[in-house]
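Q: Given only this backbone (401 positions), what sequence would you predict?
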């Protein structure tokens, strides 16, 4: 299937110009069909008994792990399924031990959720959170290098910044982290699904990504990738019965044998599943994530990226003529699926333009952080040149009024 055809899998683009995947994206039809198949199974329990049914439901996680692993060049054993980016970060915060005198480093322009799991811990664990000033929106290695030192345990980053779409130099941050023996923790929710990322080329210690933005899986499911060296050395953050290796006698025998003790020294899995939290899980989330990411893998992330690049080239060229100032950095290596612009009259004028666009069923968002931002346009593979023409024409009309 090619990208032009893939647009028809998104009924949500039929009656409007949808340019807001960076907020919450649209579900594709194959994912909705996968969800309907699961609902049918849940209604009827097609297996011989409910135990086999439960096992089949648990296996939906395998497909989700496989597809997200394929997307980032990882192995399925390196993937833990989580509810959200935030839950992935909470798990990392619980897993990586920090002590008094340590520090973690984060940009001042980040989405607030990135650092929150560490904020209450800093007082009782005695570590410092160093905030790097990136007031022009450029989250650069050079700026971080000025504050990272031998006591830095974590560098926390979004690989694509949420208000400006600035794409960071992950390879440079990897080198910086290695020079100081720090872990690189990456929130890739504004990148994956639009722009490729291969963890074999750019090793990341922990990568978190919710499904509801560029992965087109808005059902409360995402993933945490854990690098093999962290799998080896990092303590397990929480323990539950699904983190253990199946009892030697197998679950069926375990349930059917009265003499087996419930409390014993279980062996815990060495895969990233030991980072997963909870028991019976989000099965709808599993099937939707597997299907939506499967579609991205089928289209190919390189083709998706090229399509997005072509459309964002067009947008960057056309916005100034409509009277808008582009906030996003134009350098090719810093670009992403997000193009942010402002009309220059402050947030109230941008807000008025947003309302004007929404009234014409052109969906974008208004986002700022620490002075960086404006009207954020998200260009995904289901978008077309015509979507962007309509947006630019409406902005020009608003400016002429
Ligand atoms: C960079 C970034 N990280 C995290 C989130 C929140 O993700 P989740 O709801 O999956 O925790 C957002 C949402 O806007 C975001 O932009």
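A: Predicted residues:
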């Amino acid at each position: 299937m090619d990208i032009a055809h893939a647009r028809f899998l998104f009924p949500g683009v039929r009656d409007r110009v949808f340019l807001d995947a960076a907020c919450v994206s649209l579900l594709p039809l194959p994912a909705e069909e996968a969800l309907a198949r699961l609902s049918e199974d849940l209604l009827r329990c097609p297996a011989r008994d409910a135990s086999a049914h439960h096992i089949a439901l648990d296996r939906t996680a395998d497909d989700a792990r496989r597809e997200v692993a394929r997307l980032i060049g990882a192995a399925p054993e390196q993937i833990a399924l989580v509810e959200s980016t935030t839950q992935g970060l909470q798990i990392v915060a619980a897993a990586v031990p920090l002590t008094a005198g340590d520090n973690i480093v984060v940009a001042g322009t980040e989405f607030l959720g990135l650092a929150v799991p560490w904020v209450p811990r800093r007082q009782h664990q005695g570590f410092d959170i160093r905030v790097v000033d990136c007031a022009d929106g450029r989250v650069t290695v050079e700026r971080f290098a000025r504050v990272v030192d031998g006591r830095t345990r974590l560098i926390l980053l979004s690989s694509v910044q949420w208000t400006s779409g600035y794409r960071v130099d992950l390879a440079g941050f990897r080198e910086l982290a290695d020079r100081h023996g720090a872990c690189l923790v990456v929130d890739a929710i504004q990148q994956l699904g639009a722009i490729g990322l291969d963890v074999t080329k750019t090793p990341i210690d922990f990568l978190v990504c919710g499904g509801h933005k560029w992965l087109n899986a808005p059902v409360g499911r995402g993933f945490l990738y854990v690098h093999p060296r962290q799998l080896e050395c990092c303590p397990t953050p929480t323990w539950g019965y699904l983190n253990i290796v199946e009892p030697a006698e197998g679950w069926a025998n375990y349930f059917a044998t009265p003499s087996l003790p419930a409390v014993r020294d279980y062996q815990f899995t060495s895969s990233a599943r030991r980072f997963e939290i909870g028991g019976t899980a989000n099965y709808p989330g599993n099937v939707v994530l597997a299907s939506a990411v499967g579609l991205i893998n089928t289209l190919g992330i390189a083709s998706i990226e090229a399509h997005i690049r072509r459309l964002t080239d067009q947008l960057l060229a056309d916005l100034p003529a409509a009277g808008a100032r582009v906030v996003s950095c134009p350098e090719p290596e810093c670009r992403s699926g997000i193009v942010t612009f402002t009309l220059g009259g402050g947030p109230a004028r941008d807000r008025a333009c947003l309302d004007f666009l929404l009234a014409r069923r052109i969906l974008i968002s208004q986002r700022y952080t620490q002075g960086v931002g404006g009207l954020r346009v998200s260009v995904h593979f289901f978008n077309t040149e015509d979507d962007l023409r309509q947006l630019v024409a409406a902005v020009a009309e608003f400016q002429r009024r």
